[in-house]
Amino acid sequence: MSKHDTHFFNNFSIVIVGLIAVAIAIFALARSVAARTQVPETYSDPKYVESVGERTKPFVRVAVAGKDNSALKIEAPAAAMTIALAVPKDGAALYDAVCKTCHATGLVGSPKFGDHAAWAPRIAKGKPALYDHALQGYAGTSGVMPPKGGRTDLSDDLIKQGVDFLVSKAQ
Ligand code: HEC
To answer: Mean pLDDT, to the nearest integer, of 75-84?
Structure first.
């Protein structure tokens, strides 16, 4: 190597080291500026915060007694909340919709529809007693007649029409 080459090599090394030092200085400056501006801004961005909450929330949510559990509420469609049972229009329709369940076949000891022998002693008690038993419920010797056949939402008048219908078919 000539003396000239050595001189060049030394200068060149100094320049390289200087450039590396400048690069590190710029990198350090960029980091310190970002730490004060970019990082806090990212972490306080509402969209970012929300997306982290969304991704890190637990799969299972448990209702805790005495705590506010409103976030667990399941929103049911409005239609599902208002299922109203149809109101039969007369005694015959009431029989079809409600009383038939038991009285058509004599289920759970009920007097069977149109069965004269089964109905005769009951009819003998008189209409007021039958009305009363259909409205209030009745536990006789053969089974249990539930109040209004289970449809306590229906009017007394309609239930009486149902009794009239049952009786008229068994007389
Ligand atoms: C879950 C079954 C069931 C349904 C539904 C039902 N009944 Fe009855 N019902 C009975 C049973 C059981 C008896 C007999 C009770 C006994 O005498 O021990 C009876 C008895 C009666 C009697 C005779 C009561 C008496 O004093 O002898 C009448 C009247 C009557 N039901 C009317 C109705 C009418 C009207 C409906 C419909 C709105 C209806 N039932 C629906 C089970 C039912």
So the answer is: 59
The tokens for 167 are 């009786």
Q: Which residues contact 110 (CB under 8 A, 6 or more apart)?
A: 102, 103, 142, 143, 145
d(CA 29, CA 38): 13
Instruction: Please name the residue that has the structure tokens 């050595």.
Output: 6
Q: pLDDT tens digits, residue range 15-28?
A: 999 999 999 999 99
Residue 156's nearest CA partner among 85, 91, 84, 92 is: 91
Please answer whether residues 120 and 168 qualify as being in contact, where contact means their C-beta atoms are separated by less than 8 angstroms.
no
Q: What is the pLDDT of residues 150-170, one digit of tens each?
A: 999 999 999 999 999 999 999
Q: Which among 114, 90, 91, 112 has a CA at the least distance from the CA of 101?
A: 112
Residues found in the chain: 171
Residues with CB under 6 A from ligand 1: 94, 98-99, 101-103, 107-111, 122, 125, 129-130, 133-134, 138, 140-146, 148-150, 159, 162-163, 166
Q: Which atom of ligand 1 is nearest to the CA of 143?
A: 18
